[in-house]
Amino acid sequence: MIFTIISFSVLGQTSFSKETQSYILHQKGIYVLQNLTIIDGLGVQPKTNQDILINGEIIEAVGIDLPIPENATVINMQGKSAIPGMVMLHEHLFYPKATPGGFGVNQMSYSFPKLYLAGGVTTMRTAGSIMPQADVNLKKFIMNGETPGPKMDVTSPHLDREGTGILELGPFTSTEQAVKMVDFYIEMGVTSIKVYNFISKIDLKAIVDAAHKKGVKVTGHLCSITYREAADIGIDNLEHGFFASSDFIIDKESDACEPFKQYNSVRKLPVDSKKMTDLINHLVNKKVALTSTINVFEPYTNREIVPGGGIDALYPEAKEKVYKRWASKQGKDSLDYVIFNKSKKWEKAFYDAGGLLVAGTDPTYDGRIIAGYANMRLLELFVEMNFTIPEAIKICTLNGAKYLEQDATIGSIEKNKIADIVILNDDISKDIKAIRSIEMVFRNGVAYESKKLFKAANGLVGIR
Predict the structure, then answer these.
(1) Model confidence pLDDT, tens digit, residues 320-345
(2) 3-class DSSP assignment, residue 255
(3) How many domains is the chain partitioned into structurally?
(4) Which residues span the domain enclosing 57?
(5) pTM score, two decimals?
(6) CATH number of the domain encompassing residue 438
(7) Does residue 408 belong to any structural domain of this protein?
(8) 346-373: string of b/e by CB count within 10 Å (b at 16+)?
């Protein structure tokens, strides 16, 4: 299967709005960043005393004591470190709210792009849009310099049949209608398709065929269809690690979504189950990518209220709600810990078996997961999962770029790649918590001030 390669760089902006300029530390130019410790995204050991030569939006050279070109600006970064801009594949531009149906979302077109960029994300896939037209427009605004944010792979709304219960989603009623929705959203400008809980295998086959025909990949947060069935049909990506797998329900009814049975089947599955090993091997053989959103399932007891920090980004009512839920769960989430700890091992096993493990934060559910802050926390959790620091960074950078078929241009700090680089005040090669010391984020050769971007969103998450 050959997919269309989407070039983000050809849309590079030529000018910036006054607002965007206010967050820029260094405009596009010729820079030599000297004396950095670099973890380059390739999964190899850190390199010390490194220089990076940036010319426009391209990394022209990486090495020790690089020659300084005429007219270059030299920036001494002794004691600082650098990683590639993160490429995250399960992000959203909305935040949860209460609705008559029980669950709904508000679009975060102002705060979330800033937070993602501040947190080191230079490319993101929305992995399910509620307002796809807004996301497509926002993608253009960012690339035109009208507002700061990451480059975007915009995903369709969650394609599903009746049953999801999210007020903003419109279910399809026939397979033929589902195919029309695929064509409609691709024509609108989305570059990925997402399927959801209550579809049938016939629906999925038709959606995958329609999307692949137009060079677009399909990902899914499944329930009614097992991971094995979806892999055999030809899905490209599965979301939420193994949390959403219904493969282990005894006597599972075909095309039926039974959330309670699904959850219990995964919770009760032995961590060393041969059934899980067989499923992992099947997914690897079918070349199906797996997106970890492990941070969404991080327990509450003795953990941060908002993983990665950032509670002050929430508007007051949301802050109070998130705090109350966190406090109520202290000492009462032992079952959460059981499945959380198993899932960490299963995702590591998938990676070790040669699977393409990618990453995202999914800022939904109870409002505890916040764009940008959660992305930094996710790196810390990968190290908690016994990945090395270089492996954790590779999962959040180059692996995402490989899935998007953009690894020739983004995902690592290498000669001739786009200058998407995160500069940290502390040495991340020694402590993954240095990810919280982001000073600036180069996106397409332009450096944005992280602290200023974070500050701009304070008190706004949940509002706009």
Answers:
(1) 999 999 999 999 999 999 999 999 99
(2) coil
(3) 2
(4) 11-83+413-456
(5) 0.95
(6) 2.30.40.10
(7) no
(8) bbbbbbeeebbbbbbbbbbeebbbbbbb
